Each structure stands twice: as C-alpha cells, then as structure tokens.
Amino acid sequence: xxxxxxxxxxxxxxxxxxxxxxxxxxxxxxxxxxxxxxxxxxxxxxxxxxxxxxxxxxxxxxxxxxxxxxxxxxxxxxxxxxxxxxxxxxxxxxxxxxxxxxxxxxxxxxxxxxxxxxxxxxxxxxxxxxxxxxxxxxxxxxxxxxxxxxxxxxxxxxxxxxxxxxxxxxxxxxxxxxxxxxxxxxxxxxxxxxxxxxxxxxxxxxxxxxxxxxxxx
Length: 217
Fold this sequence. Notes:
The protein is mainly alpha-helical. It has 6 helices and no strands. The model has no long low-confidence stretch (mean pLDDT 92).
C-alpha cells in the first residue's frame, strides 16, 4: 500500500503532466492564430493564460506542503524542488503564448512580411517544448539533453529572422511597424526555446542529481 507521500508524488506527477499539456495547447494555438490570422483563437489564448497561472499556484502549493510536512530527501527532494523550478518556466511559456496572441490581434495582415526562416523557428521552439515535457513524463535524460542542444538551433534561426527583417526593411522602409511586430514575436519564440531548455535541465537534475554540465566526482 502506498503511503501518503507516495500518493502526493503521484498527484504532483499528474498535475505536472496536466500543466505541460496546457502550455503545449496554448503555444500551438498562438502559432496557429498567427499563421491563419484567427483573431478569435488569439483572444482565447490570451484568456486561457489565467488557467495556466492557476495551475502553477496549485502545483506550487502542493510542492511546498510536501517539503514542509514530509521533508523529502535524495531523489524525492530533487523531484519536488525541480518541479518548483519547472513550473516557473512553464508559466512563462504560457505568458509568451499570450503575448504572441496579443500581437496577432493588432497586426495588419493585408500584406504581411514573410521572413523565410520564421516558420522554421516557431516550429523548432514548439518542438522543444513538446520534447521537454515528454522528457519529464518519461524521465528520459537523453531526450532532455537533446532538448538542451536544440536551443542553439532556435538561436541561430532567430538570428536568421532578424537578418531577413533588416533586409526586408531595406527594400521597403515603410514596413517598420510590421517588422517590429514580427521581431517581437520571434523574440518570444526564442525565449520559449530558453524556457524549454530550463525545463530539460531540471529534468536531468531530478533524475541524475547533475545540473548544467556538472560531472560526477
């Protein structure tokens, strides 16, 4: 029979998976709204951010209760403390999705600029979030490390997008407002990649006890 702490660990895992699914849904929705100029969907993503915030507070409360009343050690302590760190980055991903959606509601889609690498960057960032959450669910250290490595890809694509927007502005300086909107959205996707990297780093720590390149002594 499971003790109370084991039951709480099961609840924590379920809540983390639920929050992961929520942020995947919001970032995918924001990207879809951007690509299709779906303003109602963009507004729904903005409204959904409050649910992500509530889930973060719910998990935080559970983790603090577990730390204060059960005083876990070793692996259990790493799991609970890592969850506290991960939900901060998960909540920020929800914020970025809402920020992207807010820009979508104000963009002029009559003749939008089309940086060549923009779509690839968005897809790469979203894929990092998918794999970071999957790494947590599966407790897969190798997958977590692959996510961390992928951040360089998103960073490189962000540089490509910036360069392309500068070139597009050079050809037509009247498109400054559109270019700024796209640059801000690209920056949010770049930050999403950073947040996914952070999640993956905490997954690795929770499983191995190693954090950001630590080596066993």
